[in-house]
Structures are given as structure tokens and as C-alpha cells.
Amino acid sequence: MKEEFYQKTIAHVNRKNWWHVPPRDPSAYRKRGKFLASSFKEAEFWGRPLDEPQKVAIFRPLIGDEQTIEKNLFGQRLSSEGMTMDARWKVDAKIKKAALTQGYDAVLLMTSKAFTELKTKGKMPRSSELNVFKQVHLKSSSDRKRTQHKRFRQRLLEASEAR
Question: Distance (Å, rounded) from C-alpha 154 to C-alpha 162?
Fold first, then answer.
């Protein structure tokens, strides 16, 4: 992928609101990372999404479709269409471990068609899934609002002191 499209994609991901469905197993984050969907509706597939969307700050994601991601990390495809959920979760854990070892902080998954459009034209996918491996890369929308409110109060204070 062209560096220009890679950087554009990172900026897009970091600007976007992401939706998360908490897993039943609390240790899932440690094992597989935190999965985020690009829309509330897509997240509903896995259960009830959180009420507030989340923001991320990623710097070096592995971007691609399933086949590209797995070939990049393992040299071959590990997943298949008829996998059980337990088998899928094991592959996800292997993906997290391999990606972290290779210096990635997240995986951005999209359809093959969307990935081709991104690589060739720089067109952002409408639908994607993000797996973030480190909690420090997550920011809630309320954190952002608090930060904006603090900045606003600071500017008011500075303006009143200047008078």
C-alpha cells in the first residue's frame, strides 16, 4: 500500500467513532485485544454495544482483508469459513501475538473489495473492524469532551486575567 494511503487511513481511523461490545470473558482483552466496529449496527451483531462510541489513537496498524493479514503475519491463511467461534478466538489470539511481535499496535480488517479500493484509489471503506491491542490507544468520547471543556475553561481564565 502507498504510504500516502496508509497515513490517510490512520488519520481516518483516529478521527472516527468506534463501537464496542464488551466480551463475556473479561480476559478476552488480554488474549485477543479489543474489537471495535465501525458502526453501532455492525457492533450489534456481537451483542449490545456500549452507549458511547470510543475513539482510538493508533500509530502502526496492520491493514488488510483476512487473507492479507494472515499471510502477512503467518505466511499462510489460518482461518476458514466453517470455523467454530472457539477456533476463531484462538486465531485472533495468534494474530494479536504475531502482530505485537512485528511491531503493530492494531489490525484494521475490511473486505477484500474494500481493501483493493483502498490500495489502488485511497478510498476509505464504509465498513471495517478494528482490533486494538493496547488499552493506552483507547479514548472515550467523554474523555475528549472533558479535555475540550478544560481547554475552554483555561482560555476563559486566561482571558479574564488579561483584562
Answer: 12
pLDDT tens readout for residues 87-137: 988 999 999 999 999 999 999 999 999 999 999 999 999 899 999 998 655
Nearest to 34, CA basis, from 140, 143, 138: 138
* pTM of the predicted protein model: 0.79
Which residue type does 142 have?
Answer: S
Q: Which of 38, 32, 39, 36 is nearest to 20 (CA)?
A: 36
- Mean pLDDT in residue range 127-151: 70
Q: Residue 64 belongs to what domain range? A: 3-162
Q: How far apart are CA 26 and CA 30, in angstroms?
A: 8
* Number of structural domains the chain divides into: 1
* Closest to 58 (Cα-Cα) out of 14, 15, 93: 14
